[in-house]
Amino acid sequence: MAFAEVSTDLISQFETIVGEENVIIDPEKRYNYSHDETEDYSFLPDVVLKPGTPEEISRIMKLCNQHLIPVTPRGGGTGLSGGALPVQNGVVISMERFNKILNIDELNLQATVEPGVITEVFQNAVKEKGLFYPPDPASRGSCFIGGNVSENSGGPKAVKYGVTRDYVLNLEVVLPTGDIIWTGANVLKNSTGYNLTQLMCGSEGTLGIITKIVFKLRGIPQKSVLLLMPFITNEEACKAIAEIFRAGVNPSGMEFFEREAAMKTIDYCEKIYAAKVTTPFPENMDAYLLCELDGNDDEVLMREAEAVMSVVEKFQAGEILFADTAAQKEELWKIRKNISPGVNAYSLTKAEDVVVPRASLPKLIVGIKEIGKRYGFNSVCYGHIGDGNLHVNVMKEQISDEDWNTKINDGIGEIFKLTVSLGGTLSGEHGIGIAKRPYMPIAMREANLTLMRGIKKAFDPNGILNPGKIF
Amino acid sequence: MAFAEVSTDLISQFETIVGEENVIIDPEKRYNYSHDETEDYSFLPDVVLKPGTPEEISRIMKLCNQHLIPVTPRGGGTGLSGGALPVQNGVVISMERFNKILNIDELNLQATVEPGVITEVFQNAVKEKGLFYPPDPASRGSCFIGGNVSENSGGPKAVKYGVTRDYVLNLEVVLPTGDIIWTGANVLKNSTGYNLTQLMCGSEGTLGIITKIVFKLRGIPQKSVLLLMPFITNEEACKAIAEIFRAGVNPSGMEFFEREAAMKTIDYCEKIYAAKVTTPFPENMDAYLLCELDGNDDEVLMREAEAVMSVVEKFQAGEILFADTAAQKEELWKIRKNISPGVNAYSLTKAEDVVVPRASLPKLIVGIKEIGKRYGFNSVCYGHIGDGNLHVNVMKEQISDEDWNTKINDGIGEIFKLTVSLGGTLSGEHGIGIAKRPYMPIAMREANLTLMRGIKKAFDPNGILNPGKIF
Fold first, then answer.
1. Which key words are in the record (chains A, B) (predicted)?
2. CATH number at residue A40
3. For the complex shown, is ipTM > 0.95?
């Protein structure tokens, strides 16, 4: 696809549509929109637009579709696969002015929000009404909820409560042609034609620009317990996972991290929270499971905790820390949630997001370390292991730029091949974007990619929306 | 699309592919494949094929794609929207030989099954391993699980545990071109390209033929309580619904039926089960809610039941029946699950399947009865009301054939318009098929239908697979 340049005439048309103050052409200010949290990628947009209504976006899309200008929608810029980067330059549409919670419908347990609302702001707003929106990505303090829908974000609660897409009932979307549609209806069940709502979730801004989201909500569980369970090896921790779930418990969080992840994060946490970390991470314990159980009944929670502990006892595990104070729980979650920035503060990384059936986790973790040895990289592994979702941060450290961009990528390809051979796939919650795009043929056949390209064409005949992503 | 005839040469090629014994040309035998449970529709296929492997289906599809022969896949023939009817004649592919449960993976809580397995057979097989597959359509004793995926079936447990699509992790599919793909991976979370798995769910056999399904499973809840709650009007019952959920309880079933539905079903039940129904349905109570709570702790269940009852007390309700014996529970579920055949034994019906946000239910039920008066039809209403999903059986009774096919359809159009005006849509779990197809423009804009046609074209460029359905 040969795209056109953004002409000065187009710029002035954009100014008419969104107002001069919402058109960014200054290169320094544009630079802020050139990167996200993915490695060290940077692609400068020709112009950044900050529309305020779906109608404005519709007019922008019609113009860009007519003139073959690439358009890349952008949320909070916290993505980990480069989904919001304008790899073909052109127009970036920043959704930052779509920042209103339009309605929290307490009777229907639904909320309608604009995509530029920060996830944590939304979580807190529904909490004030006694309601619960479970998806909880680590970046919740700065990510936009529209980005969560586009990448189908998960987080620690997903193991019990599902990922973002499980809460999306309906979407208002501006199509690349400028048409504005609702994808479905505000209902809990829907068998009315193809599921456009679910097709949009996780489509990484390549099919349309989301302008309103209808979420379903739940009641808040009133109580929780948190267990920190040390294991002598990461393989042993991974072996325990499937057995814990087979025992019939349904944890509201089941996280894994290597001791190394905690070590690299503690300094970072102590600095940003200005508080000493008191949890011990003994040297002879290589890996940890952080297990949260929630509900409304103390006795039931204690029974479930006992069931978890009696499974863990069968493995080579250390003493279980039962976090019984709010402060202790908070510290453990702080460490877990800061692993990604903590490790990144230590070294540039490539952040992988593989996912396998739970029982394959021991083979996966052993295989990753073996591949690391073979290709010469260290990795820090952690993640939402109850879902089979392992984050693998491959660290640059002393690796040369050349090796980093060639040999190490081959090693990552090996990790993906192993993952797929174990019944898994490339991404559990970060998306493909540009960072994982070269590896897609490992995960699926050409026939799958052909179908995806055909779907893309049905939505975006000229291929102007977020080009260069996924496939 | 001008389709071709099934020539004798093609028949002999089909015989080579699937074996002569799996090709049905005898008209009387073909007739069995001409109808399902939808009204009195009947469309005779030119030939019925019973392939045994995905590869056989692939070869059939290649031939039919090349010769422009329409192909309609068929499950158990229990559909309620005509999704499996060969409206353009041609080939019916019956999935009856795909009847094996291939694997129940107890460690990963997953199962791989062929689409021709009867839903109840699968439910029982996983139950034997101490596991739980919650989707539970009323036709579970005869429907095929592949049909459940294709129509995205629900049932009473959906209100707590979700519909069929919430359990589908991965699908093996033969595309109209003959390509065989897996749509995703056997994982609990997946953000790897467009969600082809969810796109297949509910696509009513128009995008590909499902040949293997990977489901996720859960642990079985050990205990349940069941409450039958009478209300003086159907509006009053519908008003109570949203308040019950707002109170924070999470029922595993929340069903509604009018007294009339029970009355019409009791005879039917007494006949097929040869047992007298003992539950009283007093004349002054017009509507009932059947509320099931499940879990593993008696005390928690009793607390939840009390919470439900204290909400219901605020409405104009009668005495609540607390079903404490297995026999009483079984009788109540028998009545509920036999309403559809019970009502149909009494009169030919058009079975609607509308769904709205819960708080809109009172307006919906009042409006349906008002429309019935205006257009001259009686209706029996029941359904999975906790999901906002109301089944409306419009009864033919003494209505003339002419009115039945014109005026009554206009009245049904009014019901759909009302539903959509209340934020709802046409189908919660039965699908669109041919029966609801004329009403699709009420539920969505032309732009949505254009997208759906584009998706269809990406999968099925020649439009041979299950033509004439949905749009």
1. FAD, Flavoprotein, Oxidoreductase
2. 3.30.43.10
3. yes
Whether residue B106 is found in the same domain as residue B214: yes
Q: Does some domain include residue A58?
A: yes
In this structure, are residues A352 and A412 in contact, taking their beta carbons and an 8 Å threshold? Answer: yes
DSSP state at residue A107: T
* Chain B hits for A457, Cβ within 8 Å: 454, 458
**CATH code: domain of residue A133:** 3.30.465.10
Find the domain containing B397 and state its range. Answer: 341-428
Query: Hey, what are B145's tokens?
Result: 């699980």
Contact predicate B43/B433, CB 8 Å? no
In whole angstroms, give the CA distance from residue B74 to residue B35. Answer: 10
Instruction: Average pLDDT across each block of 10 residues of chain B; the chain has 471 residues. List them in order.
Output: 92 98 97 94 97 98 98 97 97 98 96 98 97 96 98 97 98 98 97 98 98 96 96 96 93 97 94 92 96 95 96 97 93 95 94 97 97 98 97 97 97 98 97 96 97 98 98 94
Contact A175 B110 (CB under 8 A): no
In one-letter notation, the amino acid at residue B158 is A
Does A83 share its domain with A115? no
CA distances from B53 to B33, B104, B137, B174, B408 (A): 20, 20, 27, 10, 44
- If contacts are CB pairs under 8 Å, which of residues 98-127 in chain A contact chain B? 105-110
Query: Phi/psi of residue B208, each to 5°?
Result: 180, 170
Burial of A257 (0-12, 13-18, 19+ CB in 10 A): buried
In a domain, B396, yes or no: yes
Q: What is the pLDDT of residue B1?
A: 62
What are the chain B neighbours of A427 within 8 Å (beta carbons)?
190-192
- Output the pLDDT for position A152: 97
Does residue B311 lie within any of the structural domains?
yes
A351 interfaces chain B, CB cutoff of 8 Å = no
Mutate to test the interface with A, among B61, B110, B129, B192 (most CBs of A within 10 A): B192
**Is the Cβ pair B356, A188 closer than 8 Å?**
no
Residues B296 and B399 reside in one and the same domain: no
Q: Which of B191, B219, B247 is the last residue of a domain?
A: B219
Q: Are residues B328 and B420 in the same domain?
A: no
Measured distance CA(B117)–CA(B113) in Å, rounded: 7
Residue pointed to by tokens 């999306």: A168
- Report which of A285, A447, A250 is spatially closest to residue B109, judged by C-alpha positions: A250
- Statement to judge: residues B243 and B325 lie in one domain: yes
Q: What mean pLDDT is predicted for residues A120-130?
A: 97
Containing A215, the helix (H) or strand (E) segment is: strand A209-216
Closest-CA residue of chain B to A435: B192
Say if B4 falls within a structural domain: no
- Give B181 to chain A, closest Cα distance, Å: 7
Residues B229 and B315 in one domain: yes
B378 vs B394: CA distance, rounded Å: 6
Per the listing, tokens 């230590």 go with A346
3-class state of residue B215 by DSSP: strand
Q: Which of A149, A184, A219 is the last residue of a domain?
A: A219
At residue A12 the predicted structure's pLDDT band, cuts being 50, 70 and 90, is very high
Of A188, A195, A423, Cβ closest to residue B186: A423
When divided into structural domains, chain B yields a total of 3
Given a contact cutoff of 8 angstroms between Cβ atoms, the answer to whether B189 and A389 are in contact is yes
Contact A109 B152 (CB under 8 A): no
A199 & A180 share domain? yes
Do A210 and A281 fall into the same domain? no
- Chain B nearest-CA distance from A431, in A, is 5
pLDDT band at residue A1 using 50, 70 and 90 as cut-offs: low
Question: Tokens representing A458?
Answer: 């049905």
pLDDT of residue A324: 82
How high does pLDDT run on average in chain A? 96
Q: Which residues of A touch B432 (CB under 8 A)?
A: 191-193
A356 touches chain B (CB under 8 A): yes
